[in-house]
Amino acid sequence: MSEKDMNDKVNEMLQRSETNVKKAEKTFIHPEDEEREVVAPDGSIIKINPIYDYFSNEKPTEEKPCSGVIEKFLNWARAESIWVLGFGTGCGSIEIPPLVTPRFDMFRFGVQMRPTPRQSNAFIISGYLSVKTLKRVIRTYEQMPSPKYILALGSCTINGGMYYDSYSTINRLDKYIPVDVYIAGCMPRPEALLAGFMKLKELIKEGKGEKANEYARNFDEYKANQKKIIKDWNMPDYNW
Amino acid sequence: MINKFLGFEPDKEKLPSLTAKIGDDIDLSSHKYQKIWLGPNHPGVTGNMSVELWVQGNTVVKAKTHVGYLHRGFEKLIERRLFVQGFPTSIRMCVAEPDTNEYLIATCTEQLSGYDKAVPEMAKWLRMLSLEMARLQGLLRGVPGQGGTFALGLGVQWGVYLRDLILDRFEELTGARVYHMYIIPGGVRGLLPDGFKERMEDNLRDIDDFIIRIRRLMFHNSVFKKRAKGLAIVTPEMVDKYGIVGTTARGCGVKRDVRKDDPYLHYEQLDFDPPTDTDGDVYARTWVRWQELIQTVDLIRQIMAKMPDKGDIKTPMPNVLHWKIPKGETYVRLESGRGEYGMYYVTDGSDKPRRVNLRGPSYTHAIALLEDLLVGADVADVHGIMVSLQTCPPEIER
Amino acid sequence: MKELINKLSKDFNITDAVYQRPSLTFVTVPKGVAISLVTDLRDYEGYSHFVMMSCVDWIEEGKFQLLYLLHNPETKTDIGVKTFIDRENAEMASAHHLWKQVWTYQRELKEAFGIDFPGSPRVDEDFVVEGWVEMPHMRRDFDTKEYSENTYFPRPGRETNDPATYMRKKLYPNEPITAKKQDNDK
Question: Which domains does chain C have, with CATH numbers?
Answer without folding.
Answer: 2-155 (3.30.460.80)
